[in-house]
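Researcher: Checking consistency across runs. Here is MICA1 monooxygenase again:
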Amino acid sequence: YPTWKRTLARRAREDQMKRFCRAQAIQRRLEEIEVTFRELEQQGTKLEKLLRDENESLADQHTQWTNQLLYLVQKKNNLMTEESDLMIAVQELKLEEQQCQLDQKLRSYMNMEEALKTPEDHKAEQDILKQLVEVVNKRNVLIQIQEEKRLSEL
């Protein structure tokens, strides 16, 4: 039993570290996206000024600037989609962490001998179980959202 308990604790710590590393990677990518957004905005502003100011420019130049502007808009839309996916992943990580904590609390109550449990312990166990079900349902909703997004992109 103590070995089993230590193994569960070790796995919980490992899972927590994995979630932490994923959260850091997501945060870094969100920051990169923010920087790229600013750069795209600057480039787009320059192109818009060129398109407005250069009425006498060659039609080829005008078409090239328009195409560049459309490319920037497409790139920005792709980044917005990626940012949206990352925000969903952040929510999923939070719910995963919450589920893990609730699971540990529930295990501590379930490991108690039934004869030693007080009515408060029974109530706390039921409350934790309800919270755990809510978290699982929220995670399910996030998975459905991701699936709907994936299908709409196809």
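Researcher: Does this match what you'd expect to see?
Model: One thing to look at in this run: The chain has a mean pLDDT of 90.
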